[in-house]
Design a protein that fits this description.
The complex is a heterodimer of chains A (230) and B (547).
Chain A (H helix, E strand, L loop, with lengths): L14 H36 L1 H8 L4 H26 L3 H31 L30 H38 L9 H25 L5
Chain B lengths: L2 H6 L9 H5 L4 H29 L10 H37 L7 H23 L21 H29 L12 H32 L13 H35 L6 H14 L15 H29 L8 H24 L1 H7 L3 H31 L5 H27 L14 H31 L48 H5 L5
Helix pairs in contact in B: 3-4, 3-5, 3-15, 4-5, 4-6, 4-7, 4-8, 4-13, 5-6, 6-7, 7-8, 7-9, 8-10, 8-11, 8-13, 9-10, 10-11, 11-13, 11-14, 13-14, 14-15
The chains are: A mainly alpha (230), B mainly alpha (547).
The structure holds copper (II) ion.
The site of copper (II) ion (CU) has 4 residues of chain B, from helix 8.
């Protein structure tokens, strides 16, 4: 396993069996990821159904511009990742590295923007916890006076939105950081000349993972940023 | 087959250093490491049970306050469920046997398998830490707001332990599914697989799809506690019932994570000691999958009195009844296998027969509980406790020890003293029933669970229960003693002491590191039993072919 030629682990009979195994393993991993985020989405959906006004108002404080920008960035990173897999299939070591570096740069841009957004929420006391402060501004058009917004715990419901905002985007960002780690590992492997036309499973699997992380964001963006727009 | 190779090298004696164990990627060694780890938790959970059973002998407070009592039953529940039962058969016997039964050299991802043991052990240490720092008093279910608003901070530690060890389950389940799909020996078609493998396949599906949901639930509780936000706190707009939904969405299927592998073990044992092909092989295999799938749609039967709508309750009730069908299919098919078989009452068989009887009682009382009206009457009483223990201890623990005895010669290469094994199996069976049958009665009479002071008229039943627990503990200790004895001084086992038909019995005991001396080719299914070799050839068993 240590040298460049024999990528076949001792317990597999053929490269094909090994590749199919890692591919099935990755899909199963993604299935459990779907259930993990699925639990979060269910909890989010229930509270949004319960407190529609609070969620709409809270969502109004998120920057749609930054969210949309990040969506584009992530979709581009999926493209560069797909190109990296393609380069791996063709056995083009140099291009693998180039495309992975491009993917990593885009990922860093995304995380940077996320950092800017988090800081902004921090300065507006919108981070859930003891420091959370929200006073409904009934004069602004975003907060109509209704039975729900007049509820004494309206601010608490707004905080609930932000709890989900931070947990969901935080878990998503954590998955991206893990993806970055995987890509560093891929670059090291590529530099050592481990990949060939016959053996590129790690690139392919990381690609699958990265596309999944993108898809999660495709759901998160409208659910969190566009609530008040409907 | 080269007998010399078998004599000189197997997975146990290939290397002896501690590092060779801690860094092994051999599924057999990892299985043995899991065995040692979970037995430690079984012991801890058992000690807690003995302590609170002693307290329950008198209707008034004897030597512990309510807080201590609450912490003990919580410790018992958490260690037994999350750190013993869930990993018990899959991570020990499944880990050891699955690749051998498939004719593979290892699981598909050996390093992931080792990682799962480390992750599990780390999770277990976090759980132990919670106990050492004073314990948790929420009950194993961690219901909010007990676990959020009203709990001490050890809750985070205990919950984190469960969160972490959940990932170990996922790693194991994922590994099993891939291995079963991709690594079967030539000739081993899906319908030649042992039912043990089918059961583990179904279990793994539940693990992979269910465990992440409890992970995210625990994460949300942790966020609620750490940032003091109200995700499940009604005072802050949260909904405590949502926690129950999310919790039971995993924890009901988790019951099948705990019982399905036991059913797989019992199928193997029943076939071997009846000298017959298992009756209705295909439908027994499919019933495992049916249980796995249906199991995801019945969680609401835990919430009939938790403000769930009546109509939701009715649907959950009907769906829960449906799960009884595949379970009953298994029981009927085992009994049909016994019918006309040449039955031999060796130790594993005694456990398997115990399983059938006790699981049937546990399963049928489950139907009482799925009936909404009865459920309201016995909700949160000892009836639930008895039902649960008939399924989990009468079912799963019996199956685990049955399987451990059945494959002990394969795992260790040693024979245990058979007569002592049979006596112990009977002691455990009697102790178990004496402990838990009175709890059905006391629960039906209205004794609520989780109280250590109770009306005097319940004392007799509680004393019986405590006496039974003492017998049960004696049985387990006896087993520990003779198994340890056999490990050191037991006679060597041949490759197939039970004359069983499965693939795992064609390789030496203990198996070589790569499992088989020559790559196996499978020509028939796992239950090719004939009546000719009905009785064990004692000469071959006691002496041995491998020197
Ligand atoms: Cu249930």
């Amino acid at each position: 396993m240590a040298d460049g030629q024999s990528h076949l682990a001792h317990h597999f009979d053929s490269m094909e069996q090994q590749r199919e195994s890692s591919s099935l393993g990755m899909w199963l991993f993604l299935a459990q990821e779907v259930m993990f985020f699925g639990g979060l989405f269910v909890a989010y959906a229930i509270y949004r159904f319960k407190y529609p006004e609070a969620f709409a108002v809270a969502s109004g404080y998120l920057s749609v511009g930054w969210g949309a920008f990040n969506t584009v960035v992530l979709i581009c990173s999926s493209l560069t990742m797909a190109l990296a897999v393609r380069a791996a299939q063709l056995g083009d070591k140099k291009k693998i590295i180039q495309y992975i570096v491009a993917t990593m740069l885009l990922a860093c841009v995304f995380l940077g923007v996320k950092g800017v957004e988090y800081t902004e929420k921090y300065h507006h006391d919108l981070v859930p916890g003891p420091a959370f402060q929200y006073v409904p501004d009934f004069d602004a058009y975003t907060v109509p006076v209704t039975a729900e917004t007049a509820h004494p715990n309206f601010a608490g419901h707004v905080q609930l939105f932000y709890s989900f905002y931070f947990v969901m985007t935080g878990m998503h960002a954590l998955h991206m950081v893990i993806g970055l780690g995987l890509m560093i590992w891929l670059i090291v492997k590529a530099l050592r000349g481990r990949f060939s036309r016959e053996y590129y499973a790690p690139v392919e699997m990381t690609g699958l993972y990265w596309h999944f992380v993108d898809i999660v964001w495709i759901f998160l963006f409208p659910l969190l940023y566009l609530v008040w727009r409907h | 087959m080269s007998e010399n190779a078998a004599k000189t090298e197997n997975y146990l004696n290939v290397k002896h250093t501690v590092a060779s164990w801690l860094f092994t990627v051999d599924h057999k060694r990892i299985g043995v490491m899991y065995l040692a780890t979970i037995l430690l938790f079984f012991f801890l959970g058992g000690v807690a049970a003995v302590l609170f059973r002693i307290e329950l002998m008198t209707p008034t407070e004897m030597f512990m306050a309510s807080e201590t009592y609450n912490r003990l039953f919580t410790m018992h529940g958490i260690t037994m469920i999350f750190f013993f039962l869930i990993p018990s058969i899959p991570a020990v016997l499944g880990n050891f046997l699955l690749p051998i039964m498939l004719g593979a050299r290892d699981l598909a991802f050996p390093r992931l398998n080792l990682a799962s043991w480390y992750v599990f052990t780390f999770g277990g240490l976090l759980g132990l830490g919670a106990i050492i720092f004073g314990g948790v008093d929420t009950g194993w279910t961690f219901y909010t707001p007990y676990s959020s608003t009203y709990a001490n901070s050890n809750v985070i530690l205990a919950a984190l332990g469960i969160f972490v060890s959940g990932f170990a389950s996922i790693m194991t389940g994922l590994n099993f599914i891939v291995t079963i799909h991709k690594m079967r020996a030539p000739g081993l078609t899906w319908f030649r697989l042992p039912l043990f493998v089918w059961a583990h396949y179904a279990t793994s599906i539940i693990i992979v799809l269910g465990t992440p949901v409890i992970a995210i639930t625990i994460l949300l509780v942790a966020v609620e506690r750490i940032f003091s936000v109200g995700i499940f706190d009604p005072a802050l707009g949260g909904d405590p019932v949502l926690f129950q939904h999310l919790f039971w969405f995993y924890s009901h299927p988790a019951v099948y994570i705990m019982i399905l592998p036991g059913m797989g073990v019992v199928s193997e044992i029943i076939a071997c000691f009846s000298r017959k092909r298992i009756f209705g092989y295909h439908i027994v295999a499919m019933s495992s999958l049916a249980i796995a799938i249906l199991g995801f749609f019945v969680w609401g039967h835990h919430m009939f009195v938790s403000s769930q709508s009546m109509y939701a309750g009715m649907i959950f009730s009907i769906l829960s009844f449906l799960v009884a069908i595949p379970s009953a299919i298994k029981v009927f098919n085992w009994v049909a296998t016994l019918y006309g078989g040449s039955i031999k009452l060796d130790t594993p068989m005694l456990y398997a027969l115990g399983f059938i009887g006790l699981f049937t009682i546990g399963g049928l009382t489950g139907l009482f509980l799925a009936t909404m009206a009865v459920n309201v009457h016995v909700h949160d009483t000892y009836f639930i406790v008895a039902h649960f223990h008939y399924v989990m201890v009468g079912g799963m623990v019996m199956a685990f020890f049955g399987g451990l005895h059945f494959w002990w010669p394969k795992i260790t290469g040693k024979l245990f003293p058979e007569m002592l094994g049979r006596i112990t199996a009977i002691i455990i069976f009697i102790g178990f029933n004496l402990t838990f049958f009175p709890q059905f009665i006391v629960g039906y009479l209205g004794m609520p669970r989780r109280y250590h002071v109770y009306p005097e008229e319940f004392q007799l039943l509680h004393v019986m229960s405590t006496g039974g627990a003492a017998v049960l503990a004696l049985g387990y200790m006896l087993m520990g003693v003779y198994l340890l004895y056999s490990l050191i001084l037991g006679p060597k086992a041949s490759s197939n002491p039970w004359k069983a038909a499965g693939l795992e019995w064609t390789t030496p005991s203990p198996p070589p590191t790569e499992n088989f001396l020559e790559p196996p080719v499978v020509k028939h299914e796992a239950y090719a039993y004939t009546e000719e070799d009905t009785y064990r050839d004692d000469a071959e068993t006691k002496g041995d072919t491998h020197g």
